[in-house]
Each structure stands twice: as C-alpha cells, then as structure tokens.
Amino acid sequence: MSQTQRGIALRILSGVLFAAMMATVKAIGDAAPLGQIVFFRSAVAMVPLVVFLWLRNEFPAGLFTRRPFGHLTRCALGGAAMFTSFATLAFLPIAEATMLAYLSPVMVVALAATVLSERVPPRRWLGVFVGVSGALVLTVPAFGAGQSPLIGIGLGVATAALTAGALIQLRALAVSENPGAIAFYFALFCSLAGLATWPLGWAVPDGPTLALLVLSGLFGGAAHIAMTLSFRYTEASALAPFEYLSILWAALLGFLLFAERPALAFLLAVPLVVAGAVLASAPGKTPAARTLPEVR
Description:
By secondary structure, the chain is an all-alpha fold. 73% of the residues lie in helices and 0% in strands. Helix 4 runs antiparallel to helix 11 (245-258) and helix 5 (104-114) packs across helix 6 (122-139). The radius of gyration is 18 Å and the shape is globular.
C-alpha cells in the first residue's frame, strides 16, 4: 500500500469512527444527561490520545503553549459545539445531524469576511449561497412536521456556527501550536465542562449504558488519531473528497441501528450542502476550513 493509499484509508476510517461515535451517543438517548455524555466522550478519549502522543514523544513536552487564552477561546467554542451537536441527535437522524455540521465551512467564509475583514473571492460566496440553500431545503418541510425537527435543525445550525468560530481560532493557533497540544487541551476542557454538570444530577448507568459511554470516547479518540495520521501520509487536497463520506456512514448506521430512512428533503439537501462546503473550502487567499471532527 502506498503512502497516499494509507492516508486515504485512515481518513475513511476516521469518518467511520466518528459516525460510530455519533451512533453510540444517539443510542444512549436519555439514559444519561448531556453533560455526562460529554464528560465520558472527552475523558475516555484522552486515554488513546495520551498514548498516541507519548509514542510520538510529544507527551508531556509537546503540550507546552505560549497561547493559553487562545486555547481557552477555541475550547470554549468547540466545547459548546460538542454539547449542541450531541443535543441535535435527540431530534434528528444521525445523517441529518452530520450533514448540518458541513455548513461550518460556509459560516467560516461569512465570519472571515465580517469579523476578520478578509477578502473573500466570489467562488466562496457562491458556496455560502449554495450551502444555505441546502439548509433551507431541509428546513422548509420541517415546518409541517412538528416542533422537534425545527429544534434539531436549529441546534444543528448552532453547532455549525460554533464550529466555524472554533475553526477561525484554530487557524490562528495552528501557526505556532503543536497539533497534539491543541487536541489534548480541547479534550481536557470538554472533560471539565462535562464534569461541571455533575451537581445538576448524573444518572447511575447500567452496564449497557456505561459500555456505550466508554465506547463514545474510544471511538472519538481513535477517530482523531486516524485523522491526524492520515494528514501525515497524504496532503489535505487528496483527502478532502473522502471527508464527505461521513454522511454516507452516518446514514448507513442510522438505517441499520435505528431504522432511520433518509427523507426526500435530506436527499435534496445533501448535494447542496456538500457543494457549498466544497466551494467555500476552495483554495485561495482565505485559508480553507474543511476539517470538522476536532469539535465532535
């Protein structure tokens, strides 16, 4: 297997693992409160992450940072996105929740233009228009389907917006910070944020629920490692097309595990949202922001 093939295989594997993580969170349902799920997802994920960094001789030396407040901002935005992302699963199928996350590159373009005053080329503004059109295609039928789908779509859009803010900050951190440190501090922050909800009341999980909580962390941690290694073997431009397979894995797991059948609105919205994300992430003077799993 060539280095490029190895990188592509790892990128596909990371998408499968992230979809599996989302499936475990959905399977937990209301058996555990949201904060408890976030804690287990993040705290358990630190185990494979620390082992990975240690094997690469990046733990603990690689955790040194000169920008603690930059990490704090990125973690706060990404941590909030994790909460809203998991909350979305209570109202929407896994595939729809995953698809809405791909509005993030579209929102990065808008933030880059309005907050950072960056010059955005017309192609990326076209991506914004196409991506938002996809979101509207999914939203309009929801008005006649009751309150739950609308709440889910709102949470999904909020997740994309928070992810976009986190990616803007991540872009600044990546110039000088070790990727391992960025991942470690994010997992640590989300663990503490989830733990802070303990006084609000956590459930005493039974065996199956505890297994799902642990699996969510293991899947998430392994997905981050696979994604990191994929970029080590293959350049980002070659991996980008395989990123969007995450929607397929999510739809497949949703169908097999929860009997979720894709609605017509979802099938019409997917190509628009993905096309918008591709156009918004096109190479240019404004750095692209394709990779989403850092905030899951």
